[in-house]
Amino acid sequence: MSYDKPLPKPDPLMAPFWAGTRAGRLLVQTCRACNDAHFPPGPVCPACLSADQEWKETAAPPTLQSWVRFHRAYWDGFRDDLPYPVCLVQLAEGPLLVSNLVGDSSGARLGAPLRVVFEAVTPEVTLPKFSLLGSPPA
Amino acid sequence: MTHPLRNQAAVIGVGTTAYGNFPHTDEYGLAAEAFRHALADGGIAKHRIDGLITCRIPSYVRMGEVLGLDPAWSLTLPPHGRMSGIGIIEAALAIAAGQASTVALLYANIGRSRRVNYGGEESPNIWDPWGFTSPGAAHALMFRRHMELYGTTTRQLAEVSVAFRRHAGLTPGAVMRAPITIEDHETARFITEPLRLLDYCLINDGAVCLIVTAAERARDFAQPPVLISGFGARDRFRAASIPNFDLDFWHDAVADAGARARAMAGVDHADIDALMAYDNFSPTVLFSLEGLGFCPRGEAGRFVEGGTIGLGGALPMNTDGGHLSNSYMQGWALNVEAVRQLRGGNGARQVPNARVIQYVQATPCTRSIIYARG
Asked: All domains of chain B, ordered by start, with CATH?
């Protein structure tokens, strides 16, 4: 069956991010001038406005900052997953990401360290998802 | 030193339509009705209107044509649910700057009849691939954090929905008037857990008009003027990629906007007789109370227990039922309710001797306005 959930919209700024996830790496846009890390990426650094940006692998485990469960499907592709978990993740460098918590979530707590899990949903798109560090991988 | 803009503008007319499902009309029809009501309310001749603000109305040009207006000053606001505070402040500033003498502010919403659902395909964002969408889900993320950080419970959150529903029952024309209990809240279906149906605002059609003029001219009109005593603002755009979300509940932004508004108005917390808080989702009411400093950080859940924010309580809030139970007029109707309360004569929902009322929108564009009886 074809994948029927929403896919990322084409966005040149995000291309390095998706290339990274396809290769099993979680990258974050980082300023070469002032080292500020930011997500989503921008044309300039939001701290110092330098256009000299690179993509760096996140250095340490991200942490769980919130989690919810969707009981309503806003797309048909999510209907069979209801209720499905969504989590708020903070990278060690600071930026926030929204993603899905996979695996056993019974140990969820604020600040819990996470492991990134890469889920190839199409040949082009690999979504980073997260599981609690210490819980068995999904 | 007294702030030069304190009490310099006044609301002299307010108009609201019926609220509900009106597929036979559109934004122009609804806004025109609210405009007629506001002119009649204030005994204002149409030719006195020389400023126009439109919000959530597709074309400001068509709106002016429909109403037969050639204003000296006009401003169009996007349809986001955070523009009411911005618009009212801009009207006061335009009047103070002499760019307009009397400004009509028009807002219309046809989200119910056109089946707007605030998520999915109609509001794409970068988190769609993970199934994250809708402002309610952003508030669910924030409320989960509040629960974890401070021990706030969903039963405490229920106090907000229950109080506002009681107020709606006292408000003519409110959409949802049947009383609810904490148990009703706790057993309502989840939308985005931990938030349930009764934590979500309504979606309904309707329109609102406010008419604002200089305080020195306000006595020319039919209603007792309600003064715009003070206002304050603070935006939070730096982490805007998660729409309608703030990791810190907009706390410092609300604190800043509230402090600016109080300083301009020359009032303190004890002077505030009622608070109208943007309640697209029940958690924002808690965030507003903490940000404004009506209770310490993390204690809003305990603060709202036992009827504190209900009519008859220490700080009545959203006395018309708010977005949760009266009408989803995105802050505009809450500002009208502040005006109506300060005029008095609202029967069972009247806040006795209301003299000062504060409006706040804890949103990425936080605004607070303090109104006083003229």
From this structure: 9-114+202-373 (3.40.47.10)
